[in-house]
Amino acid sequence: MGNKRNPGLRGGGWAPYLFIVPAVALIVLLGVIPILISFVISLQSYRLGVPLDQIHYVGLDNYRDILSNRLFTDSIGWTFLFTAITVIFNLVLGLGLAMLLNAKAMEKRLKVFRSLFILPLMLAPVVTATIWEILFAPVYGIVNYVVELLGFASVSWTGESVPAKAAISAVDIWGATPFCMLIFLAAFQTVPGDVYEAAMIDGASRTRSFFRITLPLIRNFIALVVTIRVMDALRVFDSVMVLTNGGPGTATETMGTAIYKTAFRYGNIGAGSAGAFIFFALILVVTLVFMTLLRKQTGTEGREAA
């Protein structure tokens, strides 16, 4: 009796599939079905407040409408520019902070400073944006107070195009840099110490060691951070809605806010759903490009090692 095997559990029959049914059902219910419904809506003339019997199939008209909507098309350029600016700053600042915390002089203080640096990760994006909205206030904001102390005129951070874009970028950089720092700090721990010792014996400076040893050995971590941050930055929404609401005018509208306003402020659910699928396609393409580059890089490293 005790040695008798149950073919359902040990033989690899139905049991493995049964165990994953709840997870698959949850994914289908909360992920796949809403996406399919949204795609169907993107092909319908669907507006808020319109009776259901007036909703009808329009094919790709919603996609043509959203692509001819200047609010959406202008937001594409700013969204990609915002992504490029914030990701570059995230990489530079994240690497710098990780190097600082990885220094031998910081070993005893690592836990304290690491806890301080990751505080922005503990806050919800809406809370972060609200705090910065107060800091950027034109009259009583701390940022303008510091600017005036330095002898410069106060800035309307949310009332002018360039300052508003700078403010939104600064908020995102402040909130996302700790994540990059943690990944790079973990990456530095994977670099063998004897490699640096050999480089020092050969007369290599710290700068040369960083560019010739550290960066090549952690480039997979860099690719990972870039991929995650690009996807995250493209989806920026909370800080824009809280700080500027897309203004002044439409200067800081992102694809996320443009889709939201098209669907819920202007009531065109069909066009908003079409914009969401275009947005999804852009993010998918960017992600596939980065994943392909990462795969090729890993394959090259494997061949070199062989």
UniProtKB/TrEMBL annotation:
Organism name: Cohnella fermenti
Family in the record: Belongs to the binding-protein-dependent transport system permease family.
Keyword Metal-binding assigned: no
The entry's keywords: Cell membrane, Membrane, Transmembrane, Transmembrane helix, Transport
Pfam families: BPD_transp_1
Domain of life: Bacteria
Name of the protein described by the UniProt record: Sugar ABC transporter permease
InterPro entries (UniProt xref): ABC_transporter_permease, MetI-like, MetI-like_sf
Topology versus the membrane: Multi-pass membrane protein
